[in-house]
Amino acid sequence: MSKVAVVTGANKGIGLAIVKGLCKAGFKGDILLTARNEKLGQEAVAGLQAEGCKNVIFHQLDVCDQGSSLKLKKFLEEKYGGLDVLINNAGMAFKQSATEPFGEQAEVTMRTNFWGTLWVCHALLPILRPNARVANVSSFVSKKSLDQCNPELQAKFRNKDLSEEELCLLMGEFVHAAQTGDHTAQGWPNSAYGTTKIGATVLSKIQARVLSETRPGDGILLNACCPGWVRTDMAGQNATKSPEEGAETPVYLAMLPEGAKEPHGQLVWDKTVQEW
């Protein structure tokens, strides 16, 4: 069966640039450009194919719908027998001018950036083939937000033995505290986006540890990465990087050669491992 890569949230911005980057890097296999909106996804694929990326195909995926992830898993199993590259790029952030209550912003942002990533991983990590590569798109804001947590929370998020269940409870505690207006008093940062990305980074570390324990000889590498400050609908036009520049690190992690042992379980920014 031929190789296959999946990129989530890929109809525009960094996700679209990642798909294009994988194509230009010579990924040998099909690249699934996934998006929630089928029309926008199909248009993005048509544009890439017109540029010569003939191995890009569309598959609908709403990361906030667990059933959607399971449908994608079934498709991958039936057509390809597994998965070789997964880049969890789908994400969202409220604008600074947003008028929604902070508790609502926290819940909505968490649903996409943390729970969405988790649900896709729950569906697709079990079908990773040997030497697969996974990159969860996080942010440098995760490190900045970690530094703004109180010492107790920092210690929890840096605990190398933290379980996925414990992390999920912490993410739920943040949303509840945000909804009751107690988040800063409880030692959380005043950033819904930043806290969700703490979750994405720590989740990646946990997933990498579990893969090392459960599939030690399979050569699978999984990391979190930061694209940088990229000119997208989300970050705005004043950002310093183009989408193509933002795609460089995710594509680098996806294309790590067979036999590579690292990075694994790291936060990678500009192709460099960052201290957590």
What does this structure look like?
By secondary structure, this protein is of the alpha/beta class. The chain has ten helices and eight strands. Strands 3-2-1-4-5-6-7-8 form an eight-stranded mixed β-sheet, sandwiched between helices. Helix 4 links the parallel strand 4 and strand 5. Helix 1 packs across helix 10, helix 3 runs parallel beside helix 4 and helix 5 packs across helix 8. The longest helix is centred in the middle third of the chain and has 23 residues.
Please summarize what this structure is.
With 276 residues, this protein is of the alpha/beta class. It has helices spanning 13-24, 38-50, 66-79, 102-124, 140-148, 151-158, 164-180, 192-214, 243-246, 248-254, and strands at 3-7, 29-35, 56-60, 83-88, 128-137, 221-226, 267-269, 272-274.
Could you name the key traits of this structure?
276 residues, alpha/beta, 10 helices, 8 strands, globular, carbonyl reductase (NADPH) activity, SDR_fam, CBR1-like, EC 1.1.1.184
> What is the number of helical segments per DSSP (H or I, 4+ residues)?
10
Find the structural class using helix and strand composition: alpha/beta
Termini separation comes to 38 Å
Average the pLDDT over all residues and give the rounded result. 95
Radius of gyration: 18 Å
User: What is the element string, with H for helices and E for strands?
Assistant: EHEHEHEHEHHHHEHHEE
Indicate the proportion of strand residues: 15-25%
Helix content: 40-55%
Question: Can you list the strand order of the major beta sheet?
Answer: 3-2-1-4-5-6-7-8
Main beta sheet: strand number and arrangement?
8 strands, mixed
Global outline: globular
Low-pLDDT parts are none
Pfam family, one: adh_short
InterPro entries: CBR1-like, NAD(P)-bd_dom_sf, SDR_fam
Keywords: NADP, Oxidoreductase
EC number: 1.1.1.184
